[in-house]
Amino acid sequence: MFGQILFAIMALVIVVTSIGVVAVRNPVRSALNLVANFFALAVLYLFLYAQFVAAVQIIVYAGAIMVLFLFTIMLLNLGSPSELSERGEIKRPVTWGLALLFVIVLAGGVFVRLGKAQPAADDLGTVQMVGKFLFTDWVYPFELTSILLLIAIVGAIVMAKRRL
Amino acid sequence: MEELLSNAWIVIPLRIIIVVGFVLTAVPVLTWVERRVLALMQIRKGPNRVGPAGLLQPIADGIKLFFKEDVLPERVDRFIYFLAPAGFLIPVLCAPAVIPWGPDDRLTPIADVNIGILFLLAMTSLTVYGIVLAGWSSNNKYSLLGGLRASAQTISYELAMGLSIISVVLLTGSLSMRDMVLNQQGGLGLLNWHVFRFFPLGLIATSIFLVAMLAETNRAPFDLPEAETELIAGYHTEYSSMKFAMFFMGEYASMVTISAVMVTLFFGGWLSPLPFAPFTWIPGPLWFLIKLGVFIYFFIWVRATLPRLRYDMLMKLGWLRLLPAALVNLFLVAIILWWQK
């Protein structure tokens, strides 16, 4: 019962803040909505016994990536929100159309798969299980991903240094 | 008593009161200790008028802060301006939830979760929001610079800190803070603590954590976010009254928390340094508090001793010295553990 109430609250927070991210005009507040969203999502991971995923969600996304996002937004100092909006463009109807399409596809997917879905194993998100999978079955993809990230870092440095 | 302690509805609020209550009571005492010790080191008197030896000074300060006028600067982002002090204080008070204060697991930690140290890292990485948002919402360039500095500093030193913690995780084989303390229990007492493991590798990890914890709490010599000679008071320039007091409390509370982490990870938590008679008479929680006091004294001692670093020196130290040292250290610890197997 307690769990269901907490789930309902978190689900509500996720929906409201998700809308907030795109609807709020002030870029800093939009970023803060995303932070709140990540928090509520971390709580949902805890419901699934995925403690490791929940902790990483907060450390990596809320603690590091969003701080850098805020950092960038503040440094750019995007001016007053009204200057950013564009009028009479074709972008807006296209965006709404694509968003609608996405919702339809997502809802369709959920309805088609709903009956066949199986609950994940209880310990799938724990530190032990994530570590075991990462370093046995998925060790090559894992290492390849790290090389990919390294290439991205080197590329970023090369591009930044060109102008120094 | 036993029955009361097994009831979750009683024991969990009790634990929260013990931990948060202790941290919040420690804050005013610490302000007095810091001013007295600094005065002692600089050969002056420090606060000595209010009460015996100035002991009532924190209460006087508290009353003053509470009744001060709350100034709201023009054109601030009100909502975020009000939110920021709480956004700083709340994660700081959440962090000690996973630290065990004694051998009895019924009173502390609040929750002995199996991601203990990750929870702690998550909470300490969140404190930066309060600072960076305070700086941004104040509508003041010095505040903004202070906030930006704080976020860059915290992210940079978190890496070195995390890597030094991982070597402890490797030694323990668990992320639970309780397991980390129990792993340091053994026949040799003091020599079994993580700080003396695989000498000098444990000591290097401890030193890296020590430097990183000064930087994470924005304390001297890493107090760049509030460097008064360049930034007036940094991110809390525009804050007054209780909102300023919340930042102040947060800073001291995070000092207590991070010292507690240091004691738990490297200095045996509640364990007595030598496992025989006169030392084992002192109960575990008291040992924990003694060690905690040593590190808080260290914070004050460093503040009185070292001048503030320049900003580029701070970044260089974090990225080019501490991070590679922590990586190599972690690698060596892993090799020794693998070889012992």
Q: Concise description?
A:
The complex is a heterodimer of chains A (164) and B (341). Chain A is mainly α.
SSE arrangement:
The complex is a heterodimer of chains A (164) and B (341).
Chain A: H1 2-23, H2 27-47, H3 51-76, H4 81-84, H5 91-113, H6 127-135, H7 139-161
Chain B: H1 2-5, H2 8-41, H3 57-67, H4 78-94, H5 116-137, H6 141-172, H7 177-182, H8 201-216, H9 228-231, H10 241-266, H11 277-280, H12 284-305, H13 311-340
Helix pairs in contact in B: 2-3, 2-10, 2-12, 3-10, 4-5, 4-10, 5-6, 6-8, 6-13, 8-10, 8-13, 10-12
What does this 3D model show about the protein?
- The complex is a heterodimer of chains A (164) and B (341).
- Chain A has 164 residues and is an all-alpha fold.
- Chain A contains seven helices and no strands.
- Chain A has helices at residues 2-23, 27-47, 51-76, 81-84, 91-113, 127-135, 139-161.
- Chain A starts with a helix and ends with a helix.
- In chain A, 15% of the residues are buried.
- The mean pLDDT of chain A is 83.
- Chain B is an all-alpha fold.
- Chain B is 67% helix and 0% strand.
- Chain B contains 13 helices and no strands.
- Chain B has helices at 2-5, 8-41, 57-67, 78-94, 116-137, 141-172, 177-182, 201-216, 228-231, 241-266, 277-280, 284-305, 311-340.
- In chain B, helix 6 (141-172) runs antiparallel to helix 8.
- Chain B is globular, with a radius of gyration of 21 Å.
- The mean pLDDT of chain B is 84.
